[in-house]
Amino acid sequence: MAIPLRLLIIEDSDADAELVIHELTRGGYSVTAERVHTSDDLKAALDRDKWDLAIADFTMPQFSGTAAMTQVRDIDPEMPFIFVSGTIGEDLAVTAMKTGAHDYIMKGNLKRLVPAVARELREAANRQSRKRAESRLAHMAYHDALTDLPNRSLLFERLHQALVESARTGEPLALMVLDLDGFKPVNDSLGHLAGDRVLKQVAAQLRSLLREVDTIARLGGDEFALLLPRTNGDGAAAVARAVVDRLRRPLTLDHQALVVGGSVGIAQFPQHGDTPEVLLQKADIAMYVAKSGNLGYAFYAEDRDHAAHQRLTLINELRAGIEAREFVCAYQPILDLRTGRIMSVEALARWKHPARGFLTPRDFVDVAEQTGLIEALTFVILDRALTEWVEAEPRLALPVAVNLSVRHLRDPELPDQVGDLLKRKGVSPEMLVLEITESVIMSDPRRSIAVLSRLHAMGVKLAIDDFGTGYSSLGYLQQLPVDELKIDRSFVQRMALGDEAIVRSIIDLAHNLGLIVVAEGIESVTVRDRLVELGCDAAQGMFFAEPGSPETVRALVQST
Ligand code: C2E
Ligand code: CA
Ligand code: CA
To answer: Which of 332, 345, 348, 485 to mutate to test the pocket of ligand 1 (most atoms within 8 A of CB)?
Structure first.
């Protein structure tokens, strides 16, 4: 099979050109050649077509070989270029090569031509595929693989350029952050592939709404950024409205209509900042305000957003802290009031914050619950408690209690996840107590009962926490598969003031239902003694022991 070769031959003599073509044809090429011998012809040929190879004479009456080569290089720096000429002397040949020719062949020695052409074509192909690989890599470094939109790096580069440009011309610009509202449920219920298709559709819709000069970037997950150069507040608001409106219309996925919806936050140059980092952060805060207020879109506003800013910082730190396992457990003993011995411990979350030191649940549990991060956090605590309390010292280990929050009881997967973890750790289910606040159970009793029953059937022990604050109806209480009631510490502490009616009736109620009753927040010997008299089974509080490290609490277990 002859190899097709598009040859540009720069030569004044027809006969010499024929010789070259003949030699190449004999060497196995199917040559399509064009001969030119003036600068104008060469330009026309280069403009009109793409050539595989140029072969040039060195000295021609109307043209010089080196000038021809410069002209070729200007258009196509990579095209193989070979001189085929009469003797020109070594010096000139060296000069020719230095200016970028790939080879120099004497007309009297044409047998060198075919191997030289083969080599140059091969090398040109290599250069080209290397270049393609490089540009593919460069593209990947700057684009999101799923949507092919610019990624955060490219956004930052363009934002930087746009800011320099705006500072020079005095024109404003806007940066927006868009976060989809209903993406997670789509992804969770229809799967990642469906989620990916939704993101692609959103990307295409955004593209259709914006101008050519605007940049749409994917920041990750379901978050996008829009950079609008030369745009003032009114312009930005119009775009944000259009985006929000469009996302309120249903998308179609396999004949199914889905509404994802989105919230947009807007930061402006020069009002809100002059660096990419600051503008993005402020657009993010504004987005957060828009989302939590259900506003569609919002501009950044200094004073209003201070609290939002702090909260957002906390959310981001919380997310990173969970990832980095900055959360540890403090263990507080729970004593059997009849024997005075420790019968179990409660694992309480502590955050070893890199800058603010140890934080207690009051500083982070609410935000973790509101953002859904509590689910990951609980598993960090569960994992730790099972590992460092139960698994590390199986002979000494007493059951450990871990607190659940409201989201877990709505999550039908929780029982299996807990079961898997127990299996993985080789811990028997009776070693785990899960504490659930009374108000949480009562906010959705039916669903709670379903999840709790499955946990109970696995052998996990269950306790109702902060009992007395949640107005349980007795009817539900009887149906709940629980083992323990923990009396809220506010009632226990009122005993010190002589008010013990509530504690007494909770103890009676618990015993009637066949449940163990634990009093929380015991701070004095008087309260302890009175609880013993009332027949309370177990107790927890500073009077006995503060929450401490596994080692401290293990030492206590051994000494009592
Ligand atoms: P809680 O489950 O009622 O935990 C008992 C709280 O009372 C702990 O506060 C403990 O340090 C404190 N305490 C113990 N003895 C006494 C005492 O004698 N007097 C007084 N005044 N307080 C005492 P902590 O560790 O700050 O936890 C507060 C709440 O945070 C917990 O209340 C629990 O609802 C929640 N929490 C703790 N860890 C977790 C967790 O891992 N996940 C979830 N979802 N919530 C957690
Ligand atoms: Ca608790
Ligand atoms: Ca409690």
So the answer is: 348
